[in-house]
Structure formats: C-alpha cells, structure tokens
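We were asked to recover a plausible sequence for a given structure. The inputs and outputs are reproduced exactly as logged, with field labels preserved.

PROBLEM: sequence recovery
POSITIONS: 490
GIVEN STRUCTURE:
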C-alpha cells in the first residue's frame, strides 16, 4: 500500500534546494511509488492529513530558533505520529543531543548511507540516489541553481579544519564518483540541465582528478559549450571552492578545459598568502576571467590580517587590469566574499568566538560595511578604498565609527570628486581628524569604551573620561543621527 510522505524544510533563508529531501523524495516517490508532499515552514494545511512519515531537514546551527519551532510544530500538530518523524541534516548532526532535548525527537546523524538510519525495509542507500527536482514546484520559493545538475564527484576532505563541519559528515574521503551515470539518470527522469553544480569539498585532493575533469567534459561541459535548449553558455561551479594550496600548473591546465564560472578559491589565513597568490595567478594564466573568493574572518585572524587579504585581491585586480589594457583583452576580476566565522554549535550568528583580536564593535563595523555593499567586495580599487580605507589604520577608524556614519560616509556626488578626503561627509572628516589626533594610549582607551558596542557604555564613558578628545568623539557617537540630519538639512 502506498504511503503518504511529508517533506519539510524550515522557513529559514536558503539559497540552494534541499538536496537531502530531494533524494528522499526519489526513494519514496519514484522507487516506492509513495505519495510525496513538500512544504516549507509551519504549514497548517497538512494538519488534517494522515502522514506515514515526516522528514524534516536542517541547515546551519544558527538557524536553531526557526528549526526548533518547525520541528515542534509538526510534532505537536501530528502528535500521534511523532515516532515516525525523522529529523536530519547539518544542525541535527552537529548538535543532536541539544536538538533532542528541545524537541523530543532523536535526530538522524550524518548522511543517509545506511538503511537502518530511517528504518527502511530494504537495502537502498538513499544518499546514492539522484535528486527529485519535481518536488521544488510544490513550494512558492525561489531557489538558485534549479536548472543545474546537483552532484558530487568526490566526498569528504582530508583536511581537518576546526571551523569546518565536513569531516563530521563525511569522515572518509572518497576520491571518485562516476557523475556520468548520475547525470544520465537525471536527464532521463527530469530532463537536461544547463549548468553543473559540483558540491565537492576538496576535489583537488583526488588521485582521479584528471578522470573527473574528463567525465565533466564527457557529459557536455567543455570550454565554450552551449546548452542546446537555450543556446546559453554552460557553466561548471565547484560551489564549495578549490583548495589554493593544492592547485598545480597541471591541475589548472586541466581545469581550463571546462567552463568554470566562477572559479572559487578560499583565502582563510594570511599565512597562505604565497600559495593563494600563486593559485590566482595560475588561474589567470590559463584564462580564468571570473573568480569569487572566500575571505574567512573572526576565526584566528585579526582585523589587520583581514584587511590585508582583501587588499591583496585588490592589488591583483589592478595588476590584471593593467595587463588587459596593455594587451587590449578582457580583464580577469576577483570578487572577495568575506565570511564571518561562526562556531559549528552556535545557535545564532552573533556570538563571541573567543578571538581576542576581534570585538563586537569591529564585527559590527564590518557587518555595516558589507550591508552597504549588498554582496561581494567589488574588484575596483577606488571602490575598495572608499569602503575599507586607504590603509589598516584608516580601516580601524572606520570600524569604530557609529553605524550611521559608516552608512553615510560619502557625499552623493562622490564619484565626481577627485580628492579622496573631499568625498567624505563633514562629520566623517571630523571623526577622522579627532580620531587620528589621539595618542595610541587614548585610542586604546576609546576602543575599551566602544568594544562591546553598547550605548550605555558609550554614555558612561562620556561621563567618566576626562580626556577632551575622547569626549568629543563620544559626543559624535551619541549624536550621530542628529549630525547626519543636520547636514542633510543643509
């Protein structure tokens, strides 16, 4: 008898389709011929229906609040069937005991690579199945890459980085998975896809790397290939990034045979500076024009390290720009994507990590800068200097500014003004002048007052300190909105 299966994704922000639920749908809908329904969030429309099984996925640990709310909604609404609710995914695997205490449901930890994990009556490995793209049309939500093959050509990673959850999910490194067979089956069941999204965590470790690239080419992703249905260029995206430390000339030459767009590299630590620059220049040498690179911060780095890594990307962009202008060719560009470190067990984004080099004010300052840009750090030097400052000392002065000053630093017509300081609003210039007039001792005192990013501490600091210059800066801090309004009103 066919069963009724409910698949649930909590209503958190989600860029990519829920691959785990898509594979579970393939198992139930296609193989078992069950009735499958997919919903997002707490959906009351399923309240009066009988469900033989409910599967709830989870994402990162900082989605804790929404995830627990969703699980408890279905557990309480469908309480008679609680023993048939299965909860899995990233959060469930990272902090299973805490999730059990909050919901009363014992999570499924790790991949669905053992039929016993969800009490199957067969020996089918769900994790090996292709995703079911058809369930995505059941929800009113726009995912990225729905017209892409979502596959792995390897699993796991040999590195054991403390900030990464991969080795907890995939402790064994599998150097080769035949994507040709997987893509053929996707074509047969769901139609051809334009792009190829590879979710490998470290493909460059594979001893079968050349074979993997040949497989990618064999399924139609050769450099310059177009998708026959739309005549658009096909793209390959190693979405989790490539390890710059493992990128050799031979591997880059092989990668240049497929249409990678963008090429993603990580620059997690300044100590990898030489390896990173070498990798970027190799990619440029083999005509890789679009790079999107991750910049981890707030792990074991300092704000100075963070600034330097961003600045290195800008200098590389400038080098590639000069070369392109000289040769009259398309330039290579690097977009930096700063990523704040969040502990694997953190139940919210803004948590203290124990890094003594960062504080709440610095972190808030970076957040405001990035929110103004609404995306990556652009490759242009002038844009970077306006956003992050001419040097580290200026970057630090920006981080310590009131949020409103950071958001409203520039005059509306700043692009028409050639002199850097003349582009700044008067209150920002006043802040900078007063800040740089402080001694190092006074700067440290100011930092102590601002470090917790608390209004009450700013107020107390203004009352307690006898330092005239610090009092003037704290006054600007307290009255930042009024200062901005005063200039906006002429």
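RECOVERED SEQUENCE:
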């Amino acid at each position: 008898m066919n069963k009724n299966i409910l698949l649930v994704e909590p209503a958190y922000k989600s860029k990519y389709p829920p691959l785990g639920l898509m594979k579970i749908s393939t198992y139930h809908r296609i193989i078992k011929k069950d009735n499958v329904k997919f919903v997002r969030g707490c959906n009351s429309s399923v309240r009066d229906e009988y469900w033989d099984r409910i599967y709830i996925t989870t994402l990162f640990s900082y989605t804790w609040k929404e995830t627990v709310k969703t699980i408890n909604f279905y557990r309480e609404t469908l309480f008679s069937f609680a023993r048939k609710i299965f909860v899995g995914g990233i959060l469930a695997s990272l902090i299973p005991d805490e999730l059990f205490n909050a919901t009363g449901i014992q999570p499924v930890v790790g991949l669905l690579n053992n039929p016993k994990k969800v009490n199957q009556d067969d020996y089918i490995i769900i994790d090996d199945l292709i995703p079911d793209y058809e369930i995505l049309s059941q929800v009113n939500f726009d995912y990225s890459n729905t017209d892409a093959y979502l596959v792995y050509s390897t699993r796991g990673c040999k590195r054991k980085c403390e900030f990464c959850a991969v080795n907890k999910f995939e402790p064994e490194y599998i150097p080769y998975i035949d994507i040709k067979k997987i893509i053929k089956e996707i074509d047969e069941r769901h139609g051809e896809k334009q792009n190829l999204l590879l979710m490998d965590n470290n493909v460059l470790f594979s001893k079968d790397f050349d074979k993997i690239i040949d497989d990618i080419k064999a399924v139609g992703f050769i450099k310059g290939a177009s998708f026959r249905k739309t005549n658009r260029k096909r793209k390959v995206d190693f979405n989790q990034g490539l390890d710059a430390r493992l990128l050799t000339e031979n591997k880059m030459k092989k990668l240049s045979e497929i249409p990678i767009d963008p090429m993603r590299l990580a620059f997690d630590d300044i100590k990898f500076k030489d390896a990173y620059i070498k990798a970027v220049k190799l990619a440029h040498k083999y005509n890789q024009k679009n790079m999107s690179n991750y910049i981890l911060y707030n792990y074991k780095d300092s704000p100075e390290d963070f600034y330097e890594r961003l600045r290195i990307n800008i200098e590389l962009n400038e080098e590639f720009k000069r070369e392109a202008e000289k040769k009259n060719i398309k330039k290579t560009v690097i977009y930096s994507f700063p990523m704040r470190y969040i502990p694997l067990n953190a139940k919210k984004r803004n948590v203290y990590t124990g890094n003594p080099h960062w504080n709440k004010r610095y972190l808030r300052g970076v957040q405001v800068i990035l929110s103004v840009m609404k995306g990556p750090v652009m490759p242009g030097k002038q844009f970077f200097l306006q956003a992050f400052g001419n040097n580290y000392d200026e970057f630090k002065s920006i981080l310590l500014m009131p949020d409103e000053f950071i958001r409203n630093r520039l005059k509306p017509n700043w692009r028409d003004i050639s002199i850097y300081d003349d582009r700044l609003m008067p209150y920002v210039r006043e802040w900078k002048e007063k800040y740089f007039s402080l001694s190092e001792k006074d700067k440290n005192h100011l930092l102590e007052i601002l470090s917790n990013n608390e209004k009450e501490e700013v107020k107390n600091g203004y009352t307690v300190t006898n330092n005239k210059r610090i009092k003037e800066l704290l006054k600007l801090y307290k009255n930042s909105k009024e200062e901005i309004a005063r200039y906006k009103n002429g």
